[in-house]
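Supplementary Methods. Inverse-folding protocol.

Structures were first reduced to a discrete structure-token string of length 252. This string, shown here, constituted the complete conditioning input.
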């Protein structure tokens, strides 16, 4: 959660400037005001990072603490012709592309990914919709894949492109290198000691345990290392960030 919310920034500005509440909608639609607002959010992100230990581990739980039901978040089934064909073949032909600012671009099959050293962790998923659940995840650490690809010194962010479509375009999300190299950030292909099911992101999803659920991209097809988020969607780092102004940094 952010220490200073966007609502708090607007409210503080309104109080100090004597802006009437009836004018807030007009302000929010003003491009110059939005630029000021987002510059404040960037300052807030910097403050939050300075006050928190981003290398700290998210809490892990015992098997008996796992939730009997783990709801799905976001897309429940991409239901595109390509995805349906992949699912029918049990994802035998699925490839994870690792591209961008890397020395050795990779194209990994699910068999390749399942042969990588895996980390398992029982963690709590906190959804922005207001629910939480505890589940067990397994898969290689993202850092293992990035190291195999030879990450460039120019890379600053990792972008995930997915098989599910929103408004006809693939879902996408991004994290910075601090979260990308966090030991609990994994590309999960297992959930609760079984292969991921479709509702939970089969065959491969991101688990970035220090962030809210919408950052945990499902149906991951491509991983790109980039120097900037400019030019990706609307430049704010993810589908929900671009479309409804979710925070790019959703740390918890």
């Amino acid at each position: 959660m952010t220490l200073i919310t966007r609502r708090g920034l607007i409210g503080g500005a309104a109080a100090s400037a004597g802006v009437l509440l009836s004018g807030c909608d007009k302000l929010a639609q003003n491009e110059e005001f939005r630029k000021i607002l987002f510059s404040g959010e960037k300052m807030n992100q910097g403050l939050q990072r300075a006050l928190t230990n981003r290398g700290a581990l998210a809490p892990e739980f015992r098997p008996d603490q796992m939730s009997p039901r783990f709801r799905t978040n976001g897309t429940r089934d991409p239901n595109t012709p390509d995805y349906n064909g992949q699912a029918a073949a049990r994802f035998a032909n699925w490839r994870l592309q690792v591209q961008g600012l890397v020395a050795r671009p990779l194209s990994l099959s699910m068999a390749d990914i399942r042969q990588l050293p895996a980390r398992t962790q029982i963690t709590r998923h906190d959804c922005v919709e207001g629910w939480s659940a505890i589940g067990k995840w397994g898969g290689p650490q993202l850092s293992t894949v990035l190291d195999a690809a030879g990450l460039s010194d120019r890379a600053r962010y990792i972008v995930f492109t997915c098989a599910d479509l929103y408004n006809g375009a693939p879902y996408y999300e991004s994290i910075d290198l601090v979260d990308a190299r966090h030991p609990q950030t994994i590309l999960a292909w297992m959930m609760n000691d079984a292969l991921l099911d479709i509702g939970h992101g089969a065959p491969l999803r991101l688990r970035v345990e220090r962030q809210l659920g919408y950052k945990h991209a499902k149906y991951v097809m491509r991983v790109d290392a980039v120097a900037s988020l400019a030019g990706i969607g609307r430049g704010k780092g993810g589908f929900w960030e671009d479309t409804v102004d979710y925070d790019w940094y959703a740390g918890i």
